[in-house]
From TrEMBL:
Residues 421-470, 485-534 form the BFD-like [2Fe-2S]-binding domain. Residues 318-385 form the NADH-rubredoxin oxidoreductase C-terminal domain. It comes from Paenibacillus hunanensis. It holds the Pfam family Fer2_BFD. Residues 6-282 form the FAD/NAD(P)-binding domain. Residues 630-764 form the Nitrite/sulphite reductase 4Fe-4S domain. It is an enzyme of class 1 (oxidoreductase). Belongs to the nitrite and sulfite reductase 4Fe-4S domain family. The keyword 4Fe-4S applies. Its EC number is 1.7.1.15. This is Nitrite reductase (NADH) large subunit. The keyword Manganese does not apply. Its cofactor is [4Fe-4S] cluster; FAD; [2Fe-2S] cluster; siroheme.
């Protein structure tokens, strides 16, 4: 150990420790390391303080390296002890607690401090910046006692602080000096759209205001502006930018401007002393985001390890607003000037704005509002500096020139270049994720994060990283995506299903016991999932556990927002009769049903029914349940087909009724909707159903995986068949395969995206497999019966509808579109 050099790091924050981690990987034995940190904590993720304040994370969740890590690395760590002087002659640092430590290499990573406006009253109690754990705790404590918060500064930090304070129940006013928010990241249209969104969330704004004084005695009570106006405030958070911590360097004789001046290898003007992070100023620029600081850290780590490295030449930055739930992205030069051209697209109805700034045929900046999914590829183009001439409009619309379909998420992942940066904070490319998943077997988000650092900082890239994890794991047969289905178990869906089968587990309780659930009672995520898997695996044998079902399924009715229920009788294929209509009208009148409405699935919905009336209504209706509440077949929508329509080529109504009669009461991982149209005009909207059938001249087309809900998805063509019998066979086989393979609560659209249509087609192409699937579905359906008939004929079950304090059901309902 004696010939190791001594390395001292001043500042136990994000940039310094990130650099050290890198150095330890490159040259684990080269240095004896000592770290001084002014804060009393191990290294934590400062970025996530916004999430902690907003209630989305716990302080424990944001520790990056715990104390064990320092011990394991042999690092001497002094927390809560600031370095106060550097003796550059003796090569020693002195700390506030009186320690003296010698160095061969000294790294200054002292970060920044929140800039506190030098206005009268800025030293009063209740006036803080938002920089560290202490500030965060002060805000959380203040919200318990006080009501009114003022945030000065409508930049990234101010808006994230304001969102957190709103979540803590405070009235929040953001005071901003400019006429639009985030003026350092957004142009005016995007700034105004952001303001509108945040106002709807309950934030108040005072724009164009310059603070002149903070009023109050010891504690702040208000904010006064240069125009003479004022507001009350019990808490004032200053978020008007940052100032690099340079005092230590300046008083020790290092060259300092706004930050500590460094060259392209992060060297200061004093031999043996480097600076990295927010405290450093490189080519006149100080950065306030982690991505460029990590780029600096990479160069410094290599130099300290003695490895050749290209110089650090500065960074192009991109930002995203966190925690507000509003999608905002900004990168590069976002303001246009005399030598730039800008392309803009604004959609006020959907709240989407996109601006691209181009100079000399190259993309140099972008602003996205409302939909930031193009952020990563646009940022890659900005960084690469490649020509986009002729492709500008394509980049703006996201569609290939000359039209064509918008790519699906999977296609988009596939189309990404290997060197495209996926995680901006940590500089992780698509290729690096592929390498980690396939090459190193990192097949969970946790291990992938540990392996690559992707999504370990702001978390903004997590959806894309997760998509790539699925993408690569799916592509590589040897790797399975392993995510526990909930916090009670580390087992994923496939493992649970195969263990239930292998060990013959027959109840929810037994499954949880045998498979080592951490929560003996399970949770609202795993209980209904296990109930479904057991019912799917052991039809006829497994007794449904009604306490594992949500309220809607438990009462066989959709609970409405006023606590009443709805009744939807089954109307096969949407075809009814005067007799049924009369029955429906009679019960609606008799039970004072406040609303009778046609649903999107061509059914009649009686809304506003009292729980105790449900059994009587169903008794008097004497019609089968429409299952408008469950994870089952909901409806088969039909058009009139060739029975009446002059374009019709086949009997769409007849086919719809046949399908609905065949699959009614079929439990499924999620709700299932079907449609049959008599010709490609598609009046029954077959293109957006789980199974959508379209008649052609002499054939039927079967589309699968469509969805018209939150995330619209067009169905994909599974097959084209000739006869009605084949329609029944393929639909049965498809539905049973979905029942057996999908995760609980996964709609066919999500399932198909996950496993790929080609896989489903390959499985179903085999006629023996189809026959076996059809037989298994028929077997399952043979055990089902109408739930309302069961209830009205059973006095015990009827009692549930008069006992108003039935608390055994799982809290929550599932959405109820029939
Ligand atoms: C609430 C919040 C949200 C943010 N969100 C994002 C985001 O989403 N994306 C993004 O890219 N960036 C974000 N940032 C910025 C990001 O956190 C910083 O860029 C990053 O932490 C800077 O790292 P650093 O190591 O240079 O400084 P720091 O993380 O501040 O670390 C410096 C450390 O040095 C210590 N120190 C200072 N002087 C001394 C001394 N003399 N002796 C010993 N120790 C000393 C300080 O106490 C501090 O602990 C956010 C910042 C905040 C406050
Ligand atoms: N999501 C993220 O990436 C994120 C989140 C939080 C913080 N940060 C980083 O933390 C640092 C601090 O953030 P910030 O928002 O304080 O800095 P900022 O410089 O981005 O924004 C400060 C804002 O305050 C306004 N301002 C300046 N003087 C004012 C005054 N007297 N009254 C009212 N408004 C005034 C400015 O116009 C500016 O919009 C930055 O480096 C930022 O990049 C990033
Ligand atoms: S889908 Fe075709 S057959 Fe059906 S109603 Fe429309 S036009 Fe007529
Ligand atoms: S982009 Fe911030 S963690 Fe990946």
């Amino acid at each position: 150990m004696e010939n190791r050099k001594k390395l001292v790091l001043v500042g136990n924050g994000m940039a310094g420790v990130w650099m050290l981690e890198h150095l330890l990987k490159l040259a684990p034995q080269k240095y004896d390391i000592t770290i001084f940190g002014a804060e009393p904590h191990p290294n934590y993720n400062r970025i996530l303080l916004s999430s902690v304040l907003a209630g989305g994370a716990d302080m424990n969740d944001i520790i990056i390296n715990d104390l064990d890590w320092y011990r394991e690395q042999g690092i001497e760590l002094y927390t809560g002890d600031a370095v106060t002087a550097i003796d550059t002659q003796q090569k020693q640092v002195h700390s506030a607690s009186g320690k003296q430590v010698a160095y061969d290499e000294l790294i200054l990573a002292t970060g920044s401090s929140a800039f506190i406006l030098p206005v009268a009253g800025a030293d009063k109690d209740g006036v803080i910046g938002f920089r560290d754990i202490k500030d965060c705790e002060t805000m959380m404590d203040t919200a318990k006692q006080y009501k009114k918060a003022a945030v000065i500064g409508g930049g990234l930090l101010g808006l994230e602080a304001a969102r957190g304070l709103l979540n803590l129940g405070m009235d929040v006013t953001v005071i901003h000096i400019n006429e639009h928010l985030m003026d350092r990241q957004l142009d005016r249209p995007a700034g105004l759209m952001l303001q509108q969104e945040l106002e709807q969330q309950g934030m108040n704004f005072l724009l164009g205001k310059r603070t002149v004084e903070l009023t109050g005695k010891r504690r702040v009570t208000g904010v006064r502006f240069t125009d003479g106006t004022a507001i009350d405030a019990d808490l004032v958070v200053m978020a008007v930018g940052i100032r690099p911590n340079v005092e230590l360097a300046a008083t020790s004789g290092l060259r300092v401007n706004r930050g500590i001046v460094v060259d392209d290898y992060m060297r200061t003007n004093v031999p043996g002393i480097s600076a990295v992070g927010e405290c450093a100023e490189h080519r006149g620029i100080g950065y306030g985001l982690v991505a460029p600081l990590y780029e600096q850290g990479t160069v410094l780590a290599k130099r300290l390890a003695g490895i050749d490295t290209p110089p650090y030449e500065g960074s192009v930055t991109s930002t995203k607003l966190k925690v507000s739930g509003v999608d905002v992205f900004s990168a590069g030069e976002f303001q246009d000037s005399a030598d730039t051209r800008a392309l803009r697209m604004q959609d006020d109805i959907d709240g989407i704005y996109k601006k691209l700034v181009i100079r000399d045929g190259r993309l140099i900046g972008a602003v996205l509002f409302g939909d930031t999914s193009d952020g990563a590829p646009l940022f890659s183009l900005i960084k690469s500096g490649e020509s986009v001439q002729g492709r500008e409009k394509e980049l703006l619309t996201g569609q290939p020139a000359g039209g064509g379909a918008t790519a699906s998420p999977l296609q988009r992942l596939e189309a990404m270049a290997d060197d495209e940066i996926v995680c901006g904070c940590n500089g992780v490319s698509k290729g690096a994720i592929g390498e980690a998943v396939i090459g190193k077997g990192c097949n969970t988000m946790k291990s992938l994060k540990a392996c690559t650092k992707a999504s370990a900082s702001c978390g903004g890239c997590a959806p894309v990283v997760e998509g790539l994890l699925q993408f690569y794991a799916g592509d590589n047969a040897g790797v399975a995506v392993k995510e526990g289905i909930c916090g009670c178990t580390s087992l994923d869906r496939d493992e649970i299903v195969s263990e239930i089968k292998r060990m013959g587990l027959k109840t929810v309780k037994e499954t949880m016991n045998v498979l080592g659930w951490s929560e003996p009672e399970g949770c609202s995520k795993c209980r209904p999932a296990l109930n479904y898997y057991l019912g799917m695996l052991w039809p006829g044998e497994y007794e449904d556990e009604k306490e594992s079902r949500f309220t809607n399924e438990r009462y066989h009715a959709n609970i409405q927002k006023d606590g009443t229920y709805s009744v939807v009788p089954r109307i096969y294929g949407g075809v009814t009769s005067p007799t049924d209509l009369k029955k429906i009208a009679d019960v609606a009148e008799k039970y004072n049903v406040p609303l009778v409405k046609f649903t999107g699935g061509q059914r009649l919905d009686l809304l506003g029914v009292r729980k105790e009336d449900l059994p009587h209504i169903w008794e008097e209706l004497d019609m089968p349940s429409g299952h408008a509440y469950g994870k089952t077949l909901r409806t088969v929508k039909t058009c009139v087909g060739d029975t009446f329509c002059r374009f019709g080529t086949k009997d769409a109504m007849g086919m719809g009724i046949q399908l609905e009669k065949a699959f009614e009461r079929m439990d499924a991982p999620a709700k299932v909707k079907l449609a049959v149209s008599g010709c490609p005009r598609n009046c029954a909207e077959s293109g957006i159903k789980d199974v959508g059938i379209v008649a052609l001249d002499g054939a039927w087309e079967l589309y699968v995986g469509g969805n018209g809900g939150v995330k619209i998805r067009a169905g994909e063509l599974l097959c084209t068949v000739k006869t009605d019998e084949e329609v029944m066979e393929w639909t049965s086989a498809f539905l049973q395969y979905y029942r057996e393979q999908a995760r609980w609560n996964e709609r066919t659209a999500a399932w198909i995206e996950r496993v790929g249509l080609a896989h489903v087609q390959e499985v179903l192409a085999d006629s023996d497999t189809r026959a076996a699937l059809v037989a298994r579905l028929q077997n399952t359906l043979s055990y089902t019966s109408d739930p309302w008939q069961n209830i009205i004929q059973n006095d015990e079950l009827r009692k549930n509808f008069t006992d108003l304090n039935d608390s055994a059901a799982l809290a929550g309902t599932s959405p109820s579109a029939p």
